[in-house]
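hi! just following up on the protien thing from before. the input was this:
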Amino acid sequence: MSSSDTPRKAKVFLVDDHPLIRDHLAALIRREPDLTVCGEAEDAPSALAQIVAEPPDLVVLDLSLRASHGLDLLKQIRARHPKLPVLVLSMHDELLYAERALHAGALGYITKQAATANILTALRRVLRGEVYLSERMAARIMRRVIGTSGQELGSPLDILTDRELEVFQMIGRGLGTRRIAEELRLGIKTVESYKGRIKEKLGLTDATQLLQHAIHWVQSQGG
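and the predicted 3d structure came back as:
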């Protein structure tokens, strides 16, 4: 078979700040005859630069990145490359993040716990332009759409906006107001305003309760 007759492999770009996870995913993907890895990045600036330089067919994106949040990068990718499919791969609770990811422009969401068994199925489904979600998450969204009673309860953090949730997560990681402001490129007063809204929405009385609540949540998410 000539090179011109060889089926083209779909190019997958990996964005994750853990090298071991990228290596594991790359090894799984490269074993497939129809898939290849065209690049990797651990942060948003590097990811955006490489995606522009060599456009992939699909981006696999973690939500926890160095000095940024994956949802922000997802929105930037969607704004610059509206037809580029993105599959979110995350350790975070799908009940809290899957719908946010879809609203931000992703075509699929898979947890890292489920990835080893299902990542290739998820990749191919998203490459076809279809949505990939776990059966549990798809059922939850369907119940919401058709308005059935007895709907599964979501996370109490569902009431937070994407930015509020991002600030909440950074508080739980032990970052102070100034550091959060620097990483998010926001003013200190703006971050304080977010903190105030988070406390109000979650019914927390002071900064200590906010910190304790955030730390507990981050730990429950595995880091």
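The mean pLDDT is 87.
The radius of gyration is 19 Å.
cheers
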